[in-house]
Amino acid sequence: MPNTALRSDAPPSVGQDRPFGWRDKFGYLFGDLGNDFFFILTSSFLMVFYTDVFHISAATVGLLFVIARLWDAFADMAWGRFIDTRKAAIHGKFRPWILRMSLPLVVSGVLMFISIPGMSNGFYLAWAFVTYIAWGTLYSTVNIPYGSMASVITNDPVERTTLSTWRTMGAMLAGLVIGVLGPMIVFVDNKISADRMFMAAIVFGVLALCCYLACYKLSQERVVAPEITKEKVNLGSTIRGLVKNKPLISILAASLIMLVCTMLSGTVNTYLFKDYFGNTGALSMVGLVQIAATFLAIPLAKPLVARFGKKEIASMGMLIAALSYFIIFLLPDPSVTQYIMMSGIGMFGMGFMSIVSWAFVTDVIDYHEFLTELREDATVYALYSTARKVGQAIAGGIGGFAIAAVGYNAAVEKQTQETLHGIFSLGTLVPAIIYLVVFLILVFFYPLNKRRTNQLASDLSARRNKR
């Protein structure tokens, strides 16, 4: 299957003879490595920085995060529509925006962690709102073109899975670096240091900037949209096409459900190990095992997709994850070791969904073009990102509500048996049910199996070559 589908009047640098290869894979890895150097830094330490250094209440910080996520959802869609109305430049349609906007993004990120002695609490509150929302908005200007770019680096369905795999590796590497080095840098005597936090922001900001530059230099756009798709189109036509896009709706539903599960697990796991197992030291071990399990899935993803297809291996992975957590729930009085082992198997299965998730989005973009003859990579990707941002805003407090619902009482030293059983169910039975629902969505509602995905790529290639 050809890796290019080019118009004769394409800009001269787009679609050069260099075939898709290792440079593109490393380039795409560096893009998410750059994104997550700062995204994970803020996710891990910004709230404690705001509460302990700026002395903003946790409730106010939570409100800020909800407002920012809702604003980011709007920013994603607005920026996606803006990019789709631009013509491809000599270096492509998406890559130039990564280069242009990466420096403002990094600078705004560093500004979030500036602590100015002598300022009032009101000043710090205003500073937090302005800088955090500005950073989130600028993050959209880099992340939307980066995510959209995967669909134009190659049109081969298997190679797109490779890009999704390398993107996942970039995110995991950033998580490992910040997870290991971050606490060592920013904490002194078990308290966050304002000066060290600012130093960490500068260090990871510079690293992020280098990664964005590497992404720009190493990757290359090859698939060029037909001229008709670059004209200003009616938003109503786009919306009608999106509503008819069954693969998009299916993946949005699956992703939102997975997002709720991830946020719930992130909150519940602390209580599961602290109160049910009575062993918080094992939290780091379960995290390490789950990351290692995902890494084990990475080299298997491409050959399995080539043989069976993305839908097929993702759905099978979700079934493995569901069964693993069902088994934990059914075990009589499970130990920490049993939980870690079975959750590692579950993460191995879920890893396949995580690895191919971004490749699903590129196929959905192709399907949108097939339905509408409109190539709107950034708009479709922005809609996917927008839905996730709205989901994050809505699901942000779900873990707290769930813990309260099972009767957790922070004032007592030991929780009741009913509460402990509720925490255990939240950490095992609920993920099992959610993973099973995602499995059913993929099997019965997502229509792009291996045969239809390959046929879609062939049909679009033939259509473009006729123009």
TrEMBL record:
Keywords: Membrane, Transmembrane, Transmembrane helix, Transport
CDD domains linked: MFS_MelB_like
Cellular compartment(s): Cell membrane
Major facilitator superfamily (MFS) profile domain residues: 247-467
SUPFAM superfamilies: MFS general substrate transporter
Keyword Repeat attributed: no
UniProt topology in membrane: Multi-pass membrane protein
Transmembrane segments: 26-50, 56-76, 97-116, 122-144, 165-185, 197-215, 248-268, 280-301, 313-332, 338-361, 393-411, 423-446
Keyword Membrane: yes
Name this protein carries in UniProt: Glycoside-pentoside-hexuronide (GPH):cation symporter
Provenance organism: Paenibacillus chibensis
